[in-house]
Amino acid sequence: MKVAILHGSARSTMDVDVVYCREAENIRRLVAALRPYAPYPRDVPEGLPFHWDDRTIKLGLNFTLNTTLGPMDLLGDVPGGGSYVELLPFAEETSAFGVSFQVVKLEKLIALKRATGRAKDLLPLAELTALLADRGSV
Known about the structure:
Blueprint: H1 3-6, E1 16-19, H2 24-34, E2 40-41, H3 54-59, E3 62-67, E4 70-75, H4 84-87, E5 91-96, E6 99-104, H5 106-116, H6 119-122, H7 125-134
Parallel strand pairs: 1-4
Antiparallel strand pairs: 2-3, 3-4, 5-6
């Protein structure tokens, strides 16, 4: 589920983006939580060596993964937004499927999508801006 959907967008890219804290204890928990879902780099031929462990996460930053639950982008740093800690002031609590979690606020989501400059991120800006205007925040 994408954050845009939680804000009312009709668009879906069918993956989930997770911004994670890079502290050692959090990385350990993240590795343990995702291990049962067989994370493997997306768009990489099957069979290449890949070890899902603390060391891999510490040596990397952003990961595009396939899991048995579906595709996931695991982000240690978000272009235009920074780290988990830097994004926390722009987050709000929400819930879905009986789980509470933090999502980036719509205003910040729009700024993040603009910052990437990628066509796939720029396409939904009109809809997201309209959703923000409907809330009276523009």
